[in-house]
């Protein structure tokens, strides 16, 4: 199976955000039953207006900094910090004098089942059709 690569960032963004949002461009990296992953680029004095979402979201600041609001709380965030936006709770994000980039990870309201590992067998559902896990074989490539 070939390596799958998704491009995002400069040259791949478009204006993004709920109605009333200003100064933000983004790109959906992945969207499917397991959730949505997006990149957002905030310009100076950009704003995602307060809104709710039925999914839990992680707002991961990867560059710069700004502000987030969750419910009645407001706080400054900077690169290397992640903020949880709980489902159905009013949340927002904005910048003042500096730009900010963030990755937003939306998780499904109903989590998908995790792969089971039982008695040395692996599979989505351990059962008679699932055999033992094979030992990996290989070696490091020469320098």
Account of the 3D structure:
- The protein is mainly β.
- The protein has strands at 14-15, 22-32, 35-51, 56-70, 73-78, 82-85, 91-94, 100-107, 116-118, 121-123.
- Strands 1, 2, 3, 4, 5, 6, 7 and 8 form an eight-stranded antiparallel β-sheet that branches.
- The radius of gyration is 20 Å and the shape is globular.
- The protein starts with 13 loop residues before the first strand and ends in a 20-residue tail after the last strand.
- The mean pLDDT is 82.
Biggest sheet record: 8 strands, antiparallel
How much beta, percentage-wise?
Answer: over 45%
Mean pLDDT figure: 82
Task: List the helices and strands in order.
Answer: EEEEEEEEEE
Radius of gyration over all CA atoms, rounded: 20 Å
Notable characteristics:
mainly beta, 8-stranded antiparallel β-sheet, globular, 143 residues, two-stranded antiparallel sheet
Secondary-structure topology with pairs:
Blueprint lengths: L13 E2 L6 E11 L2 E17 L4 E15 L2 E6 L3 E4 L5 E4 L5 E8 L8 E3 L2 E3 L20
Antiparallel strand pairs: 1-2, 2-3, 3-7, 3-8, 4-5, 4-6, 4-7, 4-8, 9-10
Kindly summarize this structure in a few lines.
The protein is an all-beta fold. The protein contains no helices and ten strands.
